[in-house]
Amino acid sequence: MEQAHHDHQATPPDCFRLEELEVLQSFEGKTFIDINYYLWLNQGTEETLPYRFIYYVELIFDDNSVLLFTSGEDSEAIRIGKVEELVSTAEALRKLHGVIAIQRVHAGSFPLWLPVQDQSLEAIRLSKQTEGFYLNDALLLDFGAHQILLRLSEKEGLELIPYI
């Protein structure tokens, strides 16, 4: 990712903030070793069907560092997540509904992730807006020979697909 240069204007809500860009850059060149998805489980009601979506994605690297992405509760932007926020939301939902509403799913053995196991994350590629800001609706995890697109789902949460 190229260095981000922002004027002194406020970052638009559809763009990554400078602090987030710096975090993303700090993970480039690290070796990816594992991944977890955190699913938001909506139990449904008598009127609605149950559904689930990817709420958080946890990338784990060989130096024990972790990069968390989230769609947030509004699914309007990809943000860098914090473990404390994930735990707090999960606990609040459990108390509110009386059941577990956030479930961790180990995804390291999924076909999408097998080709990038123990590979260097060469770059995190972002779409640049005309004013020089970087859009936060999608990003490309570039592992060289394999790329994975992380984007907001059309419904809710996050979606991960191979980029061809």
Quick structural overview:
By secondary structure, the protein is of the alpha+beta class. The protein has one domain (18-163).
Query: What is the structural class?
Result: alpha+beta
Amino-to-carboxy terminus distance: 19 Å
Q: Which spans of ≥5 residues are poorly predicted at pLDDT below 50?
A: 2-8
Q: Outline the biggest β-sheet.
A: 5 strands, antiparallel
Q: How would you describe the shape?
A: globular
Instruction: List how many beta strands DSSP finds.
Output: 9
- The whole-number mean of residue pLDDT values reads 88
Q: Provide the number of structural domains.
A: 1
Radius of gyration of CA atoms, rounded to a whole number: 16 Å
Order of helices and strands: HEEEEHEEEEE
Strand content: 25-35%
Q: What's the tally of helices? A: 2
Identify the strand order in the major beta sheet. 4-3-2-1-5
**Can you give the helix content as a percent range?**
10-25%
